[in-house]
Design brief:
By secondary structure, the protein is α+β, with helices and mostly antiparallel strands. It has one domain (4-121). It has helices at 29-38, 41-54, 88-98, and strands at 4-16, 60-68, 77-83, 110-121. A four-stranded antiparallel sheet has the order 1-4-2-3. The chain is elongated, with a radius of gyration of 15 Å. The termini are close together.
Length: 122
């Protein structure tokens, strides 16, 4: 079996307070979200392992988008906004895992977070 590597990079983190002018992002939320995503690395690896069984050449990046409501610790939505990985099952699995990400901290405002998951097998 190949060694699997998953790198997670925060690309964009935007607090959106369009309608709530006075709402502020909880300063602890970004770290809480990063930790919650890193805690799911094993689950993301399981998605990748299943894809490798079908096609050992599978590799690449997935840009993942997570949206949070101000008073929610769990993402309102999760989606893949960009990837060259073709495996539909892997993409579905990654989104399903992302939808289970739960933070310790509340964001305090609407949040749109984008992360890049880099999947490689050596």
């Amino acid at each position: 079996m190949k060694n699997i590597s998953i790198a997670v990079t925060s690309m964009l983190f935007a607090a959106i307070s369009l309608l709530t002018g006075c709402a502020k992002l909880n300063p602890k939320f970004e770290d809480s979200l990063n930790n919650a995503i890193m805690a799911k690395t094993g689950d993301f690896e399981n998605c990748y392992t299943a894809a490798l069984k079908k096609n050992p050449e599978t590799k690449g990046d997935m840009q993942l988008k997570l949206e949070f409501e101000p008073n929610a610790k769990k993402a309102k939505s999760a989606s893949i906004v960009a990837t060259k990985i073709k495996d539909a099952g892997m993409k579905k699995c990654v989104v399903a895992v992302a939808q289970t990400v739960e933070t310790v901290e509340l964001p305090g405002t609407w949040v749109d977070g984008k992360y890049t998951l880099e999947f490689t097998a050596k």
